[in-house]
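Here is the promised in-class demo. Please do not try to memorize the tokens; focus on the logic of going from shape to residues.
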């Protein structure tokens, strides 16, 4: 039955490159087609197009080496399509889960069908297509394409003696109190540092903290549950109150529980009732969701009612902005699983209407989106980081990097700039040098650390002349080689009127340099802005 449904969907979208969806208040939401077909494609390519696009954007064979297709990607796809009998060893590893509870959750969600969803003839045609058209290896790349100049006058590094392993899961600058929060994944705690790096407070959270929000009276902390891939819902939203010597958890401190490996939380009053709702990216693993928890008043106080906006795993960073300038707050989310890229969920009278505005193949590894008016035309643009390389044995991918998409004003976005950066994980656009335009600070969790450790942090100074194509000068600092940068925040830490940067290093993944990072590295690194 499922195979028949896939075929029908495929045929319905044969000639469609763009879909127009109207909501109840008369607006038209533009999104691209989920499937694209080619009338003159070979039998093998037609099979690949049909079945691959049932879950994600089509991935061309040229994007991965033949060995990766053969040993990893095709077996992974096979078990997703019920072809377990062809990959018995691989199926044993991924299908059953790591515990009885996880197995039950995967079976209930129908993640891995028990019966084949593809005729074996079609499957073998699909396999032939990828293996016959994938390169055996990537050709050498011009090293000048990724050259990063040493030396950066805008920032100076400040090394803090924290005596902690670099297992940092989040960093955040509190401009009001001039302090830094960081998540210690080893201690499973939220640590507060002064602007000079002195430890001021430590809150133990039960699992690694990955995000937090400060209000006038309390601290809301998002704890991930399982840090490494898992489908067990152990994430929590915790509430702490401020005390004279820092902050402490409330007696009934668990606001939300059983979250699916959450990684990001964005707070806003989306219901217009004066209460702060929270949008949580439940990244999960094979089960997850982008969920809006609407705040409601009750006799017990404020409770939260879940509303699933996207029922798929992979939600990463989120923003709440009025993207179409209709007076309503829309949701922007970077998705790093299944249908990867960036979705805008437009806020309408009939609910949130999703538009897949930036579509990426899964090899890009969408990790973050920053929402800014980069070209200062009054419309918000998208700065997207592609480089999440952590699910499987990582290889360097030349299509990883930072991409800028211009808002064309009609619901569509066009890529206008690409900076190649192996393993790019987060990029922020800010006017760091205070010259009136936006520069870019980028980190790379999966950089080419063995040969080019300078790729771990790159500052792209905006040298563009008005009305001309964007021009950037990539620069870095020597001390950025002291960590493997998972997280980053920007803000005026010292109150001098310019934006500083804090980097957080997570060295918990296998790597030839892991021992050096763990023994000599920095869990947190301050890049102090010297503009003022």
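The designed amino acids, position by position:
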């Amino acid at each position: 039955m499922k195979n028949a449904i896939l075929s029908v969907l495929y045929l319905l979208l044969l000639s469609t490159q763009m879909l127009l969806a109207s909501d109840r208040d008369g607006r038209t939401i533009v999104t691209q087609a989920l499937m694209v077909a080619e009338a003159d494609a070979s039998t093998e390519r037609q099979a690949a197009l049909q079945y691959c696009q049932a879950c994600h954007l089509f991935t061309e064979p040229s994007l991965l080496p033949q060995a990766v297709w053969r040993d990893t990607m095709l077996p992974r796809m096979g078990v997703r399509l019920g072809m377990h009998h062809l990959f018995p060893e691989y199926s044993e590893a991924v299908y059953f889960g790591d515990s009885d509870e996880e197995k039950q959750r995967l079976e209930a969600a129908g993640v891995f069908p028990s019966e084949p969803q593809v005729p074996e003839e079609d499957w073998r045609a699909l396999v032939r297509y990828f293996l016959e058209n994938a390169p055996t290896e990537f050709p050498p790349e011009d090293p000048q394409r990724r050259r990063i100049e040493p030396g950066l006058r805008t920032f100076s590094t400040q090394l803090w003696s924290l005596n902690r392993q670099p297992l940092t899961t989040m960093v955040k600058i509190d401009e009001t109190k001039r302090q830094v929060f960081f998540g210690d994944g080893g201690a499973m705690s939220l640590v507060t540092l002064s602007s000079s790096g002195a430890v001021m407070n430590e809150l133990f959270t039960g699992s690694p903290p990955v995000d937090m929000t400060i209000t006038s009276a309390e601290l809301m902390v998002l704890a991930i549950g399982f840090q490494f891939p898992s489908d067990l819902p152990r994430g929590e939203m915790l509430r702490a109150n401020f005390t004279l010597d820092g902050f402490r958890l409330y007696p009934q401190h668990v606001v939300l529980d059983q979250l699916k490996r959450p990684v990001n939380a964005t707070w806003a009053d989306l219901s217009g009732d004066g209460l702060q709702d929270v949008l949580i990216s439940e990244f999960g693993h094979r089960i997850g969701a982008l969920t809006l928890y609407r705040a409601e008043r009750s006799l017990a106080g404020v409770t939260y009612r879940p509303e699933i906006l996207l029922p798929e795993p992979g939600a990463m960073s989120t923003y709440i902005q009025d993207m179409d300038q209709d007076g309503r707050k829309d949701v922007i989310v970077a998705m790093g699983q299944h249908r990867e890229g960036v979705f805008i969920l437009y806020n309408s009278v009939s609910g949130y209407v999703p538009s897949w505005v930036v579509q990426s193949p899964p090899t890009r590894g969408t990790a973050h989106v920053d929402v800014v008016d980069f070209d200062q035309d009054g419309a918000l643009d998208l700065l997207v980081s592609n480089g999440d390389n952590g699910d499987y044995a990582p290889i360097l991918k030349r299509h990883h990097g930072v991409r800028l998409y211009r808002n064309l004003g009609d619901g569509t976005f066009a890529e206008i700039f690409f900076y190649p950066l192996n393993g790019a994980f987060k990029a922020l656009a800010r006017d760091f040098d205070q010259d009136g335009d936006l520069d870019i600070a980028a980190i790379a969790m999966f950089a080419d650390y063995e040969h080019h450790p300078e790729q771990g942090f790159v500052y792209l100074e905006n040298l563009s002349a008005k009305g001309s194509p964007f021009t950037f000068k990539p620069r870095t600092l020597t001390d950025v080689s002291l960590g493997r940068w998972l997280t980053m925040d920007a803000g005026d830490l010292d109150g001098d009127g310019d934006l500083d940067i804090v980097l957080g290093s997570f060295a918990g993944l296998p790597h030839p340099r892991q021992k050096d990072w763990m023994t000599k590295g920095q869990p947190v690194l301050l890049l102090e802005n010297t503009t003022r």
